[in-house]
């Protein structure tokens, strides 16, 4: 009989933690418990990937009516019903949370709706006062958005808040240039919001391929997003009546309630926010949204006291098998800040179960992971950017940008990008970057070929599917440039 209450105690009910728990219990026969302080499904299902992608779908319909008319259909544009959409979105998230709870129950996992912290290397203490021992403990607590350290930053929203707005603002300022900032800039613009975006860097989407991010920035600007590069907030505060002169639109409070003629003093009421930028300009916005970074959820968990080592941002430091400096404690997903993608967290959870419960030591593989940025147009990417590949070895770049048939016929000036980065020595495709509608769907398949070590000649031998945008990936014969 085991000396512990459980073979495994998982802290965190997101995609990675739930997968590890139910596979360890269902496939490996382990006795497993899981604790979650919030909603099951974690960031991805409840306040990230899933609701965001549904909002992306909603925002893309704004251009359908105009395009359809150019294709001969007689359609009329109507206003977007945020209230109706939001109600359906909430229902869908409730359904998905129920699915996650059912998966755990059907796998025999004991689930606790409570916050957990570590009492020692084998003991978990819950906010309910209960304590349990476990042979192994898995940290899967994810991360959270953070506000910048500036005065009155509490007036701004973070990504979690956007899914709870009762009303859409008329004017919003988005601060940040990463994928979350750019995605929501496109989403909100598509839903009819007037979007201004500040980013202190020279170009949005830092760390991605330079050519691709430039095309996306141009497309965002052309669509009507007021993008300011090299710009940040100097000062922000509640707008005064004097600030509001010339801004007749209603302001919306953080709770989503419309505020028009409130007699409450400006400094005490929620609502319009006055912002001064580094370029000296000042403006009033209904809402300010900070997409300026995330931090791992490791606060007040008792980790460092036990010898679990944390990094500069509070991330749990682990080895290639997701094991911490304390042998009985492991960590997966965003809390480790290795590669913050839901499918990666799930893979890390599966590798953990293989290693610890199935006797098959399985290191986590973070090579050639495809990903997508759901801007408009989308950005699909796998492998190295042109810049990173050039720093690594001599390369050839095959790149083409063009107007796709569907939107060109409808009279839009949208452009797409198809790009391969190739090793001159091995001829392997080191990077593939696609900026186009449904790029996420395309890059998944390119990722399979590249994971198998496909060369440029393998791509060349593949017959094109015509007429498609993606056929360009296999028809580019001559290098655009060398590096």
Quick structural gist:
The chain is α/β, with parallel strands linked by helices and 483 residues long.
What does this molecule look like?
It is a single chain. With 483 residues, the chain is an alpha/beta fold. The protein has 15 helices and 24 strands. Strands 1, 2, 3, 4, 5, 6 and 18 form a seven-stranded mixed sheet that branches. The protein has a six-stranded antiparallel sheet with strand order 19-20-23-22-21-24, with helices on both faces. A four-stranded parallel sheet has the order 10-9-8-16, covered by helices on one side. Helix 1 (15-26) packs parallel to helix 11 and helix 3 (49-60) runs parallel beside helix 7. The N and C termini lie far apart (63 Å).
Number of helices: 15
Radius of gyration: 24 Å
Structural class: alpha/beta
Helix content: 25-40%
Distance between the termini: 63 Å
Strand content: 15-25%
Topology:
Elements: E1 6-11, H1 15-26, E2 32-35, H2 42-47, H3 49-60, H4 64-70, H5 82-106, E3 110-112, E4 116-120, E5 123-126, E6 131-139, E7 143-145, H6 159-162, E8 171-175, H7 179-190, E9 194-199, H8 210-223, E10 226-229, E11 233-238, H9 241-244, E12 251-252, E13 258-259, E14 273-277, E15 282-285, E16 287-290, E17 294-296, H10 303-306, E18 329-331, H11 342-357, E19 371-373, E20 379-383, H12 386-392, E21 395-402, H13 405-409, E22 416-423, E23 429-435, H14 439-451, H15 456-461, E24 481-482
Parallel strand pairs: 1-2, 1-6, 2-3, 6-18, 8-9, 8-16, 9-10
Antiparallel strand pairs: 4-5, 5-6, 7-17, 11-14, 12-13, 14-15, 19-20, 20-23, 21-22, 21-24, 22-23
Helix pairs in contact: 1-5, 1-11, 3-7
């Amino acid at each position: 009989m085991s000396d512990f209450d459980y073979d495994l105690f998982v802290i965190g009910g997101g995609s990675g933690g739930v997968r590890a728990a139910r596979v360890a219990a269902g496939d490996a026969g382990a006795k497993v418990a899981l604790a979650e302080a919030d909603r099951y499904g974690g960031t991805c299902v409840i306040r990230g990937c899933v609701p965001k992608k549904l909002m992306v779908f909603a925002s893309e319909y704004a251009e359908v009516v105009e395009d359809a008319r150019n294709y001969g259909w007689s359609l009329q544009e109507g206003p977007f019903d945020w209230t109706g959409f939001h109600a359906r979105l909430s229902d869908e998230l409730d359904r998905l949370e129920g699915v996650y709870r059912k998966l755990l129950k059907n796998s025999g996992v004991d689930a606790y709706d409570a916050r957990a912290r570590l009492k020692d290397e084998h003991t978990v203490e819950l906010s309910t006062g209960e304590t349990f021992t476990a042979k192994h403990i898995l940290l899967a607590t994810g991360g959270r958005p953070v506000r910048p350290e500036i005065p009155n930053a509490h007036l701004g929203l973070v990504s979690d808040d956007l899914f709870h707005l009762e009303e859409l603002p008329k004017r919003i300022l988005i601060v940040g240039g990463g994928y979350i900032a750019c995605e929501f800039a496109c989403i909100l613009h598509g839903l009819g919001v007037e979007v201004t975006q500040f980013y202190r860097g020279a170009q949005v989407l830092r760390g991605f391929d330079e050519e691709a991010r430039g095309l996306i920035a141009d497309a965002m600007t052309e669509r009507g997003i007021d993008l300011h590069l090299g710009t940040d907030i100097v000062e922000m505060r509640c707008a005064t009546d004097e600030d509001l002169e010339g801004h007749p639109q209603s302001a919306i409070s953080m709770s989503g309630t419309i505020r028009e003629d409130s007699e409450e003093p400006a400094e005490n009421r929620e609502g319009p926010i006055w912002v001064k930028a580094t370029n000296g300009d000042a403006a009033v916005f209904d809402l300010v949204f900070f997409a300026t970074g995330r931090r791992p959820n490791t606060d007040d968990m008792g980790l460092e006291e036990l010898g679990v080592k944390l990094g500069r941002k509070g991330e749990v430091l682990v080895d290639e098998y997701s094991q911490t400096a304390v042998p009985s404690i492991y960590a997966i997903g965003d809390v480790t800040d290795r590669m913050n993608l839901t499918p990666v967290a799930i893979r890390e959870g599966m590798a953990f179960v293989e290693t610890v419960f199935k006797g098959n030591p399985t290191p986590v593989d973070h090579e050639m992971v495809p990903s997508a940025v759901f801007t408009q147009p989308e950005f699909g990417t796998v492998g190295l950017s042109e810049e990173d590949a050039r720093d690594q070895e001599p390369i050839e770049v095959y790149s083409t940008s063009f107007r796709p048939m569907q939107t060109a016929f409808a009279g839009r000036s949208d452009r797409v990008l198809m790009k391969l980065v190739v090793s001159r020595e091995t001829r392997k495709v080191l990077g593939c970057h696609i900026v186009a509608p449904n790029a996420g769907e395309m890059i998944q398949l390119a990722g399979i070929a590249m994971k198998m070590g496909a060369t440029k000649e393998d791509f060349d031998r593949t017959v094109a599917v015509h007429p498609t945008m993606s056929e360009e990936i296999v028809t580019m014969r001559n290098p655009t440039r060398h590096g």
